[in-house]
Amino acid sequence: MSLPVAQSQLLVSGEDAQDTSSPGQNLERVVRELEKLDQPLPSRIDANPEEVERGLARLVLTLIELIRRLLEKQAIRRIEGGRLTDEEIERLGLTFLRLAQRMKELQGAFNLTDEDLNLDLGPLGDLM
User: Fold this and answer.
1) Sign of CA pseudo-dihedral 76, 77, 80, 81
2) How far apart are CA 76 and CA 88, in angstroms?
3) Other residues' Cβ atoms within 10 Å of the Cβ of residue 65
């Protein structure tokens, strides 16, 4: 049996086919999804070289910041677990300090703030 396009789209996007919402709520949700599809793409792409460079820098620095935070959490777990010597702890601390300083320098060079490196993932919330 073939489903209407809107209903198929809701199933694909993770909505439950056995939804207990009222028909009015389902219709409102379908209308919102259709309105999103109705928004046209820009007729022209703004290829300003400075903005492209800044956008790329923002993406790269966001990835570096995410990886830095993951590594820092792993290092803290290793420290708390007693698996590192005092020398290794000192070296890790110095490494993270230098990385933070370099990140600030690069943010300044591209006029980016900490908030610029935090991506909005929609329903998942902010990246960091």
Assistant:
1) negative
2) 12
3) 19
Question: pLDDT of 62-118, one tens digit each?
Answer: 999 889 988 999 999 999 999 999 999 999 999 999 999 999 999 999 999 999 888
120 beta partners? 126
Please provide the distance, in angstroms rounded to a whole number, between the alpha carbons at the two ends of the chain: 44
Q: State residue 21 phi and psi, 5-degree precision.
A: -65, 160
Question: Buried b / exposed e across 73-87, counting CB within 10 Å, b at 16+?
Answer: eebeeeeeeeeeeee
What the block records as the tokens of 72 is 């820092």
H helix and E strand count, the chain: 4, 0
Structure tokens at 7: 């209903």
* Per-residue model confidence as pLDDT tens digits over 22-40: 667 778 887 777 776 666 6
Amino acid (one-letter) located at 85: T
Q: What is the residue type of 37?
A: L
d(CA 97, CA 89) in angstroms, rounded, equals: 12
